[in-house]
Structures are given as C-alpha cells and as structure tokens.
Amino acid sequence: MQKLKKLYACLLCFFLLNDVPSYAATDSQPEQHALDQIRAYISTGWDSLTRSLTDCATVVDTKLSAASVLYLPADFAVPASVEQLQKQCKVQVQHLPAVIHHIGEMDPSKIDPAGLLYMENRYVVPGGRFNEMYGWDSYFIIRGLVRDGRIDLAKGMVENFFFEIEHYGGVLNANRTYYLTRSQPPFLTSMILAVFDAEKASGHQSTAWLAKAYDHAVKDHELWTSELHRAGSTGLSRYFDFGNGPAAESVKDETGHYRQVAAYFLQQPDLGRNYVMESSAAKPSSLAAGPLFALQICDVAKTMAQPGCDSAGTVALSADYYKGDRAMRESGFDISFRFGPYGAATHHFAPVCLNSLLYKTEKDLEQMSAALDRKEESAKWRERAEQRKADIQKYLWDSEQGLFFDYDFEKQARSTYEYVTTFYPLWAGIATPEQARSVMQHVGRFERPGGLVMSPYETGAQWDFPYAWAPNQLMAIEGMRRSGFHEDADRLSYKFLSMVMENFRRDGTIREKYDAVKRSSETQVTAGYHMNIVGFGWTNGVFLALLHDLPTSEVARLSKEQDQASGSAH
User: Fold this and answer.
1) Of the listed 61, 391, 408, 512, which one is catalytic?
2) Is the distance from CB of 24 to CB of 508 less than 8 angstroms?
C-alpha cells in the first residue's frame, strides 16, 4: 500500500509539473463534436495552467535544478498566504536585497539561489517548463480568458503586471529573479484595454481602474524610450537586456547551446562581427565572456574515410554576442536567424515588431488619456505616435520589396530577412492602404498548409521555417482584417485552426508551436530548446480569438470536417 501511495504521489507531481490536461479526445467520447472537445480542453486548461501562492507547484522551476525559493520585494511585509505556503510546502521565503526602481537596477547574479518573484494574484502560465507568468504570452492568454468569460482571472494578471512595475521595475520577461534585467514585447496597454472593454461590455466599467492602469502603462512605456533602448539616432527603439554574459535559463536548460553557437561562428569568420575568439584561463580575452569551449573544426574533404579534424583551441563567445543573445530573448523570438545567426545582433536592430507595438501603445495611451479627460496628455501621445509612424516609414518600409524589414542602425542598412512581423504594421494601423496591398501580394512567401510560417528560411531554429506560432497568426490575421483582406484572413484562420484540431484529435493536446508544412505538432528544432511544450496558454487563447472572428459558415465547415475525420478515426 505504501508503494502505491508513493507511485500515486509521483504521478501527481508529474502531471502538475508538465501541465498534462485533464481532458483529451478519446474513443470513449465519440458522441461529442470535435469542436466541443477542444473547447472543453481549453476551458479546463485555464484551471490546470493557473498558479497562485496557495499552490506548492507554483514555486517549482523546471528550468533550474536549484531549490525552490520565493522572493518578496525588499519593503514588502510577508502576506498570510506566503506564511501558509511556507508551512505547507516547505518553501524558503526571502526578501530581495534592495528596493528596485527600474529594470536592470539589480544584478540577478547577486541573488543566490535564483527563485520565483512574488505576485499578489493568480495567473495563467504557458505550460510545461514555463511555470511562471510571461510578459507577452499573457496578452494572448488574456485574449482567450476574456473570450471564455474569465474576466476576473484576466484582470488579476494585468494587476500582477502593475505589481511588477511597482516592485520589480517594469513588466518582466517572467517573474523569476534571473529575468530582472529584461522585459518582453510591450503588450501592456493591449492587455489593459482587452480587460477594460470586456468589463465595459458586461456593465462593470471602472474609470478609476483605467486611471490606475494608465499611470502604470506610462511608466512601462518609459523603459522602451530610455537611452539604452534607443536604436541609435533613428528615433526608434530596440530590444536590450541590462544583464551581461550567458542567460541563466540557457546555461541550465539548453544544454550545449552556447557550444553549438561558438562552433558555428568559428566556421563562419566572414560574418563581420567578432562573436568568437581565442581565450583561455591562462590568456583570457578582454572581449570574451562566459564559459570556455575546447572546439575542433572538421573538414569532410580531408579524407574519404572520415572527416579530418583540427583543434581550434580554447575559445569563448564575446560579450557583444551575449548582449545580442539576451536581447533576442527579450524579443520573445528565441531563436531565429532574423537578427543574424542565432539572433546574435538583435541589439543592433530597430525591429518592426517592437516599434509597431510601441506605436500601438502610444495610440492606446492617447485613447486612455482622452477617456480620462487629460487632453494635453492625449495630444502629446498623438504627436509621439505620429513621429514613430514617420520613423517606421522612413527606416523599416522597403518600397522595392513591398515589405517591412528590421533596420540595422549600426550598419545603417535595412535587413533583407523576410519575416512574419512584416504584418505587424497592418495590425497596429501604421501601414497605408497601398502598403497593406503590397504586403498582401507577398503573403505566399509565408503561407503554408498550416498557416503562416515565421520566415522562408530553414535554419533549424524554432522561430524560423517551417514553424507556425499562434501569436503571429493572430497578429497577422487581425492585421489583414483591419486592412480589409477578410478572405485571406478567413483562409489562414481556417488553415491554422484545422491544423491545431487535427493534432488535438491525434494526441489530445494543444502545443506551443506547429510545423505548418507538415501540419504537425512533431518538430525537429536544432537551435535552442528542442521540445514542443504541451499546454499551451497562448495557443489556447489564439484558437478562441480566431474562431470567434471566423464567419459562421466557416465555423460550421470546420466543425463538420473535423467531426467527419474524427468519425473515420473511430
């Protein structure tokens, strides 16, 4: 009996940590429509993915092997819920060593061991290894929550971001101590308005809450226009992590990644930026950072029998590479080759995505301040938005290619790397009608059987070809609808939704990403972390948002098609 109890406890722990859903489509439920099955999975998924400080599983960090520690702000009293958590879960609780006023003010390496940062409200995590509340994931999760009527949970998450701004210096990549040096793509005003509009529709509009939200959103915007987040003299912004050296979660959780990067750059000496250099404990390079790697260069042409290998000596990656790597992680697109191989030059670019989001933020702040009868502030935000729009047109629009591209402000040259973020200016309302038509003429470069791929380039990275990610489906498709391309939006929505449903029918789960060419959740990522996480928060939210906007006739066709496929499977 004791062995059975231990086995049950282990299984329970596994299911909690991996967010294995409590519902899956099975042969025992043939009478239920396929669309009802996946809706039920998503509905119950919100609860299985919800974390709070009354739940022992909340503090666990599967990305690190260190003991679980919960950190409170330096000037924050220990809440009763945390005292209870200490007793029930044997969780270590500490205060941060100092009050934090802005992101990057505190060096996470001085906080040992790393741990979870306290939040006041419940929140939805993405799933699997991502057992914390993420900056940009939360927008797409919140879109799903309000669509499913879970407004209180969505509002609590937004208020958690207010807490982060007040006590941790800004909206963080996620609420772990090793993320205290960076944010994520700025969706805060979009989250605020999603909740505010949902409450307004239900008759619970609160001007006082909007005023509080506005003040926090203004502070969040300040991060992106501060000196170190400026993209040179362009007037635009860039991604930038205030930390240095290897990212903690990569060292622990992405085994061999930095060695792989060093080997790649060692064999690509003509890339123009010095990312790898000879360095050793005896003769350290002043430009290097992070661990040392003993590498070999192998040449298959040296011998017919086996590759010939020469020692490359001991090398290290440069401090500039790690800055780019960290900035890439702030961008959320970790990893693609969009900002150079392995995202190494991310901090040297003014990105289309970030500046489109900041334009949207400024327009939102204009709208919010007007609603609060702050006319002078509203005029200021309108002026700032128009200036950013002009700078985006100047630096990021390529009239010859008919697409928006990122801008390398260090080299003063526009990128030629075609990327799905070219649709962001349509979503934000930046693109002119002529530009929108031009972008849509090139939609075939991204469209595949399962929706829109990230790029046409197969690099082995998960944020490149052949992968389709839910957030970018939503941004692009809503951009198309805003620009009047409803047939394209319907077609692409159908492709993505049907792909998610087909894979759900096969394995009873919703995943982080999909292979849009094979219409499969089976992925072969070779750059970055290799798994395809089950859950999955933002895919759940995007599924509901896309389904809601799909014409009734197309929803009926989707349902019938999936029911027929499900019937044949039985």
Assistant:
1) 512
2) yes
Q: Examine the residue annotation and report whether 383 is marked as an active-site residue of this protein.
A: no
The one catalytic residue among 334, 366, 502, 515: 334
Q: Please list the pLDDT of the chain residue by residue as tens digits (570 residues).
A: 444 334 333 433 433 344 444 444 444 444 579 999 999 999 999 999 999 988 888 888 878 766 679 999 999 999 999 998 888 888 899 999 999 999 999 999 999 999 999 999 999 999 988 999 999 999 999 999 999 999 999 999 999 999 999 999 999 999 999 999 999 999 999 999 999 999 999 998 899 999 999 999 999 999 999 999 999 999 999 999 999 999 988 876 677 899 999 999 988 878 767 899 888 888 888 888 888 888 866 654 444 445 556 666 888 999 999 999 999 999 999 999 999 999 999 999 999 999 999 999 999 999 999 999 999 999 999 999 999 999 999 999 999 999 999 999 999 999 999 999 999 999 999 999 999 999 999 999 999 999 999 999 999 999 999 999 999 999 999 999 999 999 999 999 999 999 999 999 999 999 999 999 999 999 999 987 888 999 999 999 999 999 999 999 999 999 999 999 988 654
Query: Which residue reads 């060419």 in tokens?
Result: 517
Question: What are the CB-based long-range contacts (under 8 Å, 24+) for 517-525?
Answer: 517/448, 517/449, 517/450, 517/453, 517/465, 517/466, 518/449, 518/450, 518/466, 519/449, 519/450, 523/462, 523/467, 525/460, 525/461, 525/462, 525/467
For the chain, which residues make up each domain, given as ranges? Answer: 54-120+132-202, 248-346
For residue 400, which phi and psi values (nearest 5 degrees)?
A: -70, -45
Catalytic annotation present for 512: yes
Quick one: tokens of 136? Answer: 């940009």
